[in-house]
Structure prediction request, 334 residues.
Amino acid sequence: MNRMTKLVSMFYFTACLLLLTTGEASAKRFKIAVGDAAGGTQDALGKKFVELLTAKSGGKHSAKLFHNGQLGSEQDTVNDAALGTLDFSILAINNITPFSPTVGVFTLPYVILSLDDAIKLTQGDVGKELIDNTIRDAKVRIVGWAYSGFRVLTNSKKPIKTVADLEGVVVRVPKNEIMLDTYKSWGINATPMAWSETFTALQQKVVDGQDNPYITVHAMKFYEVQKYVTNLRYLFSIEPLIVSESIFQGLDEKTQKAILEAGKETTDYSAQYLRDSEAAIKQDLVAKGMQIDNPADNEKEFIDRATKVVWPKFYESIGGKQKLDNVLKILGRS
Prediction:
């Protein structure tokens, strides 16, 4: 073998080795932070997303779920994703609002009144605009939506059917101004508290109650420390799947496409998951000893106080009153 042939052979071998090594290095096993325990909506969304991402990438990419806030509080995961030190997070929409205030339109009380409302907003023009806003403001991209249902109120002290019944009940809420002000409109000062501290606080009677969807109440086993449920409809819980925008932009086009397609199909799956599971979960909570009551007078007093006091206060942060008017128009309401 002459010198030129040897050089060509070495070059070919080196090129093949480089391609092989590069292919191996580009395979990813992403980390996905999950605020809730296994068994809830976030878990269902995460598992389905991992399954679809793996399939759509031909088995090249996968991901691992880290439940119960193992990778930090939900708001911490937004920061980490923005910095590019975390790949994905599944979290309640109210924990993105501090970073991208226009998303707060989804957490204004009594705006979303059904699963159909939530789907129409998240998957339509409003949702597209809010995705762009979160990329701009928070440096994270929403690639999927989980639908968890209304945040019902649970407590360990007494049945609550009227605003007056809230007196003397200490309620934990996330560190979210809109939610805190909603409770203020009902005459009480709710206690802002990290999600990871909530079960212990309920167990030790530091707080009496909290609000979350039935699916979350069940997954977190709140029936062990709570007795009473009030069927409030003040906030429909939407839990987006976010990806670090810097990490997303660093991926090849095929992987980006796989993530976006997996997110879209996972969103559709989440809606059906809620339809299929919520009724059975409510029955099981009753079987486990919880008492479920409806608010008096179709929740009228709760609705009137919250919408009259809270909505105007946050017009500016969500982008102006016209933004809310447009959302209500899309939903067929004035």
